[in-house]
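quick q for whoever's on today - can somebody do inverse folding on this one?? i tried earlier but teh output was garbage lol. tokens:
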């Protein structure tokens, strides 16, 4: 495993994704240290062009939005929120999918049938429809609640994949030996099966983060995103709601779209690089 991790940082695809993501994370971490203004402060007229000076003397490098707020500062805070939603949603999705997949695959029988039936029900109903119905029914939607909701609707594909791998592993010699030795079910799953699916889970987790970011952006563009903070999807929703495209105020929505694309592209590149290292067929 250590050798494989060393190979990761020699894989061009993984490194491209890693560098892009690291640059984004570094920028959103450092920029607020120099610009300490409140991102919600209205410091200019609406839709001022990039490079315009605000009423407080500040240069707005990406102009102002429909409310007269600094687009760059909003972009930084919106990126933070979207990454937070992606991380929490990805963790939720991975935890549920991994737990149910391992349980169904190892125990089999009635337990497997029940979990598989529940998984199939979630797969048949489009997850985005469930997301919309849940979001509409909530009166308040914080970034944490939104991320958990996204995670709760996206786990079935991971559960099915983990179940398939666990089913093939449960009859292996090392698992049978552990069972004969007297290991309990939980110990066998954690020590004899989980390490063999860990690489897949890591790749699935990265894809889950990207999926959660896209799902949150889609919800927010419909006006169903977090209601107590700024996200990339919320910024795009405001731009569309206040007709930024028709006013040719491209700076109000193009940077948001570009950041979402860069984040998801970097995560997919990292996943592709990990697949090259962890997948024996591709590695050969």
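ok took a stab at it. sequence:
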């Amino acid at each position: 495993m250590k050798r494989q991790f060393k190979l990761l940082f020699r894989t061009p695809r993984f490194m491209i994704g890693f560098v892009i993501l690291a640059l984004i994370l570094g920028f959103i971490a450092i920029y607020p240290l120099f610009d300490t203004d409140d991102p919600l402060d209205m410091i200019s007229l609406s839709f001022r062009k990039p490079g315009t000076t605000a009423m407080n003397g500040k240069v707005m490098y990406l102009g102002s939005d429909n409310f007269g707020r600094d687009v760059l500062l909003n972009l930084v805070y919106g990126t933070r929120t979207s990454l937070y939603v992606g991380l929490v949603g990805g963790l939720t999705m991975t935890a549920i999918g991994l737990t149910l997949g391992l349980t169904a695959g190892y125990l089999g029988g009635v337990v497997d049938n029940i979990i598989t039936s529940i998984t199939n029900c979630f797969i048949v109903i489009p997850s985005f429809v469930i997301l919309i119905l849940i979001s509409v029914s909530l009166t308040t939607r914080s970034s944490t609640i939104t991320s958990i909701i996204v995670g709760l609707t996206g786990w079935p594909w991971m559960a099915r994949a983990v179940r398939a791998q666990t089913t093939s592993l449960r009859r292996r010699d090392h698992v049978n030996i552990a069972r004969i030795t007297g290991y309990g079910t939980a110990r066998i799953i954690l020590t004899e099966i989980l390490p063999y699916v860990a690489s897949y889970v890591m790749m699935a987790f990265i894809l889950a983060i990207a999926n959660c970011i896209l799902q949150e952006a889609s919800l927010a563009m419909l006006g169903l995103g977090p209601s107590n903070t700024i996200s990339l999807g919320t910024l795009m929703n405001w731009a569309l709601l206040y007709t930024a495209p028709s006013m040719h105020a491209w700076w109000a929505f193009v940077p948001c779209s570009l950041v979402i694309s860069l984040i998801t592209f970097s995560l997919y590149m990292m996943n592709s690089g990990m697949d090259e290292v962890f997948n024996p067929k591709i590695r050969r």
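fwiw Residues 71-107 form the longest helix (37 residues). also Residues 141 and 154 are 18 Å apart (CA to CA). so keep that in mind when u check it
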